[in-house]
Structure formats: structure tokens, C-alpha cells
Amino acid sequence: MRKTLHNFIRNFISALMVIILVASCTASNNPTTNTNTSNGTTETITVYTALEDDQLNKYLESFKQEQPNINVNIVRDSTGIVTAKLLAEKDNPQADVIWGLAASSLLIADQQGLLEPYTPKGIENVREDFRDSKDPPHWVGIDAWMSAFCVNTIETEKQKLSIPTSWADLSKPVYKGKIVMSNPASSGTGYLSVAALLQLKGEQEGWKYLDALHENIAQYMHSGSKPCKVAGSGEYPIGISFGYRAVKQMNGGEPIKPVFPKEGSGWDIEANALVKKAEIKPAAKTFLDWAISSEIAQQYAENFPLTAVKTNVKIPKGFPEDPFAQLIKNDFQWMSKNREAILEEWTKRYDGKSEPKT
Question: Does residue 72 register a pLDDT over 80?
Fold first, then answer.
């Protein structure tokens, strides 16, 4: 997997640079409580992350308990925006640490010379296929996420719709105008879904399928989680999103049924890295050590069934019993070689239904 994942990224940079032209360099900054050291000073690090907002506070509370003298300034945004910021700041890096960003994005950053090799403490506990093959590694994974459908059971019952169980089901005319999906040109989750379909069905049949699916799509959204959120609110009965969000909303009491398509789910790894800059703060390395510790891995496992460090946590309710079996067999070389062509073709065919960019 590691070799093919590297190949997937090799030709991705040019496509992602488009994001930089449209992305604002602003992001939400949410510093943790500022705790003074015994001599009245505080070590502060800036951490860029694409982890979900509803995960961060609990994770960071754990770090604060272990390292009360390190203040963490969080800059959180979507994967594309975080990656664009890193590339835009290449000559004047602002982040000290990258935490929970797609491994595919970290490989782009690494090719641009933005990452400082570092072997965090506890690396021996990390699955080999969840970390960079270099020694020392340039990035280390923490968990993996997969695509899923978010189905509002109240709305499907009200509209007399059967619950779809496969990609094939979503192309049926009965779902016309009932589905929302992530735009693959701006969402990693969206691209994983499109690339998975083209691989599962072959390019010719894959585009035929996407044509049929497009007839049923009400809108393409510029976020991996938004299709699930609007499905949860009842605005649309079905959102093509990712597993964590579907399971989170279901377990939070929303009328959402997570559906993992019979044909398989697209996927990627959330990973960490040290940013290369003139001053590497010791606190940044301390954070990366903590970020793969067995203690925080237990919390990752409460949200994701696939974690880099093995835990005794049961697979979260709502995920497949065998999550590895749910993942498609990605040909990352093909995805890399054809990404720009796929997005160009997708945009030409379907972008008319995309929501306006804010």
C-alpha cells in the first residue's frame, strides 16, 4: 500500500495548486488554555489540522493534562485548504506541526520539501502500512477514514424510498433530486468516491454510472461532511459522505443510517508530520510523540475502526464488522496519472450542480 500511495501523490501537486489560487489563507484559530510554566513562560506551538471540530477538544484535553506547559494554537480547516496553506507558506512556514491531515496531502508537502523527518517515540507500535517508509519517517499515520452514505430514515420513509445499500442503487430514477454529494474538485472525500467508482466499474462504465448518478444529484458540496449534515437535518434524504460523520450523527440521535456500499468504499489515512523551518521547537516533537501514544490512540479508535496503533477498543457502532474488507483496492498509480483528467472531465459534465463557493 505504501508504494502505491506514494505514486498516487507524485503528480498531484499541479492540481492542488489551483486550490491555492482560490483558497483564503484564513482559518479558525482555537488556542487551548494558556498555562504558564514555573518560571512564568509558556511554550506555544501552532498545529495545522483537518481533524473534525467535534473531535479536537477531547483530544486536546488529553494533551493538556500530559503537557500543561505547552500551549497549542490550532488552525483547523478542510484538507484542501490546509494543504494549500502549507504550500503557500513554503518560504515562511507558520505551522510547527501537522496533525490529522490526509497522507496524500502530506506526500505533496514532502515533495515540496516542507516536512522535517522525525521518528516519534512509540513508532514501533505504528502499523508499517500507516507510516512513511523512510527512516526517519517524514509522516506517521493515526487512523483511516472511508466513504459512506448518510441516509435519513425519517425522510426515506416519508417519501416512500427504500434505503440504498450500494452505489448501483443510487443511480435508480426513484432517487432523482434526493442525493447530495461532495464535489471531488474541492473535497478529498468526493474524489475518493469518484475514483473508486471509475476503478470498480472501469472508465467507460464508470462514466456512464456517474452520468446516471448525476441525474439524481441535487447539489455537489465543497465539503466532505456537509452532505451528511444536510441529510441529518432532513434537507435531503441521502448524502454521500464518509463513515465517521455518518456514525457520529447516528449515535448523536439524528435519524441517520450509515450505509457502506456493497461494492466498497474509497479511503485515505489521517497522518502527522513535523514542519521544516529554521527553528524546530522541542514542544513540536513532544506533541508528535503524544499524537501516536497508546493513550490518544484509544480516543482515535472511539471514532474510527482503523487505527495506526492497535487498541482494545471495539469497532464503533455503525461501522462494518470487518472495516478492512470494506476498503476498495486502490490503484494509486492510476489515480495519480489520471487525476487531472478525471477532474477536468467531471467538471465539464457535472459542475453545473455545484453549490457556490464561499
Answer: yes
